[in-house]
Amino acid sequence: MMPNNQMDEIPVYLFLGFLEAGKTKFIQETLEDKRFNNGEKTLVLLCEEGEEEYDPSTYPSKNVVFHTVEEQEEFNPANLKKILKDCGATRVVLEYNGMWTIQHLFESLPVEWAVYQCMCFVDSNTFLQYNANMRSLVVDKINVSELVVFNRFAVGEMDQLEFHKIVRGISRRAQIAYETTDGEVAYDDIEDPLPFDVEADEITLKDEDYALWYRDIMEEPEKYHGKNMTFRGVVAVDPKFPKGVFAVGRHVMTCCVDDIQYCWLVAEWDKASLFDTRQWVRVTGTISVQKHKLYRGKGPVLKVESVILTDAPAQEVATFY
Fold first, then answer.
1. Which of 71, 83, 138, 216 has the fewest Cβ atoms nearer than 10 Å?
2. Is the four-CA dihedral 165, 169, 170, 174 of positive or negative sign?
3. 30 with 37: CB under 8 angstroms?
4. Which pLDDT score, from 0 to 100, does residue 254 have?
5. What's the predicted TM-score (pTM) here?
6. CA–CA distance from 308 to each of 90, 203, 232, 249, 292 (Å)?
7. Beta carbons of 253 and 270 less than 8 angstroms apart
8. CA–CA gap between residue 14 and residue 114 (Å, rounded)
9. Mean pLDDT, consecutive 10-residue segments, the chain of 321 residues?
10. Residue 51 in contact with residue 20, Cβ under 8 Å?
11. 302: which residues sit within 8 A by CB, 6+ positions away?
12. What is the side-by-side order of every strand in the sheet holding 147-153?
């Protein structure tokens, strides 16, 4: 028997992107597919309206309800629950406003609404401009997406590698697809090796590689289990930490100054009490993926073997570029 919490869950299929990026066209085609639109009552929640229009007459099942939320203030848990209750739908297709943040989205979804799939659609003709002028919103959307689709991609006129690098600078897990101007779809097959040998038993990080390595170890910690790591980082200590534990990491900037975060690992060493917060160190130790209270679950724990006090690197804030 399925647990009650799973029975009550409302699946949300989330479509992200800026206005005229191709979200409506893809959703329309999805609702025309009887494998998806097989009779289950579906709420299509629209948070912006572009030039493209929906045509329900082409759907194999007419059990589809549309509702538009025009103002960001209307996108709140109480209102969303009411909309769903009034229409009686059991799942949601959400075309989200590209100018609204993902933080607002997840703060506003009712607790029983669960995002089952997240895709981001991009107009290739305007993407580089958006990335240059509104990068925080670009990062915001790509960072949570499983698939990024570049529509209207002009083969021979646009550099696929340029688009690839921007996405990979934000997310290593998102798949990338290009729908060309002639209607063909091609998936990104550009190899994207890490700038260090992840197969080596001993890995020494260059200062400029910290951000990429940190994201990779947090996404796939198991592949670093048992590896001996050496890197430069800044220490953080807290009286609430368990005895013999400190944090070591770097401040990392994803897109702009406002999003700089301290990205750290749990480190265990019997001389941890000797450290002060903000000391720069070159640390060597072995990664063990295990449960730890500071992670509130499993995570990579550095079993420290040696620590050397050092100066800060020339660029104290790590980036992906």
1. 71
2. positive
3. yes
4. 75
5. 0.68
6. 58, 17, 9, 14, 25
7. no
8. 10
9. 56 95 95 96 93 93 96 97 97 97 96 96 96 93 96 95 90 92 93 87 96 93 97 97 97 79 97 96 98 94 98 92 67
10. yes
11. 229, 248, 265, 266, 267, 268, 283, 285, 286, 287, 288
12. 64-68, 42-46, 91-95, 10-16, 113-123, 147-153, 175-180, 185-187
Query: Do 277 and 248 form a contact (C-beta atoms < 8 A)?
Result: no
The DSSP annotation for 190-257 comes to: -----SS-TTSSEEE--GGGHHHHHHHHHHSGGGGTT-EEEEEEEEE--TTSPTTEEEEEEEE-SSSG
Q: How far apart are CA 211 and CA 220, in angstroms?
A: 14
Residue 126 identity (one-letter amino acid): T
Structure tokens at 218: 């947090």
Burial letters 207-244, b for 16+ CB under 10 A, else e: eebbbbbbbbbeeebeebeebbbebbbbbbbeeebeee
In this prediction, residue 256 carries a pLDDT of 66
In total, the chain counts a number of residues equal to 321
